[in-house]
Amino acid sequence: MKEQSAAQQREAVIPVKFVTADILLSRQNEIQVMIARRAYELFKSRGYVHGRDIEDWLRAESELLYSCRHDLKESSEAVTLRAKVPGSFTAEQLKISVEPRRLIVSGERELDVTCGGKEPAHTEKRTQRIFRLEELPVDVDPSRATATLTGDTVEIVMPKVAAANKPRGKSQAASSGR
């Protein structure tokens, strides 16, 4: 019985709250600085040898950010993003911002990692981060957007802005045909 309730909890649809874009754009700047510092550390550890800056940047980025598999789809009514996040992210650890042509998804959580080897094992705190900025192909209505977390999948549905001038255009075209 407990197994079923745990499975049901994993499959529960949990709403994710939205935040303003300025909060996440500030977070983007912080992440860029962290990546730049780590890339410089990698450059330094190789003896300041030039020519591998892109490799250093990409390695630093992969060390600091979790790469989420995602799918962005457009239908006639909405643009939908589905992304796989690490299963232990909660809705409270995710932050989402929707603007008319941009979507930002961010998340951060602390992990206790057991490290071992030749020395006795010990536990370290590490931060797992996700950050995704998507330029949207069409205008969406941020006030009608919804975001839910189901298991390890976050789904953000952003209804398209209704084109107010489309009906007028049709009636004008019909009346201009005489």
Can you walk through the features of this model?
- This protein has one domain: Immunoglobulin-like (Sandwich), CATH 2.60.40.790.
- It contains four helices and eight strands.
- It has helices at 2-11, 21-45, 53-64, 165-176, and strands at residues 13-15, 70-74, 78-84, 94-99, 102-115, 122-135, 146-150, 153-159.
- The strands form two sheets. The protein has a five-stranded antiparallel sheet with strand order 1-7-8-3-2, with no helix packed on it. A three-stranded antiparallel sheet has the order 4-5-6, with helices on one face.
- Strand 7 (146-150) and strand 8 form a beta hairpin.
- Helix 2 (21-45) crosses helix 3 (53-64).
Number of DSSP-assigned strands: 8
Mean pLDDT score? 84
Radius of gyration: 22 Å
The domain count comes to 1
In the CATH hierarchy, the architecture is Sandwich
Give the neighbour order of strands across the main sheet.
1-7-8-3-2
Q: Order of SSEs, N→C?
A: HEHHEEEEEEEH
| N→C terminal distance | 71 Å
Question: Strand portion, in percent?
Answer: 25-35%
Low-confidence stretches: 1-6, 164-178
C-alpha geometry: globular
CATH class: Mainly Beta
Instruction: Enter the CATH topology name.
Output: Immunoglobulin-like
Protein structure class: alpha+beta
How many strands, what sense, and barrel or not for the largest sheet? 5 strands, antiparallel
Q: What percent of the residues sit in helical stretches (DSSP H or I)?
A: 25-40%
SS summary, helix count:
4
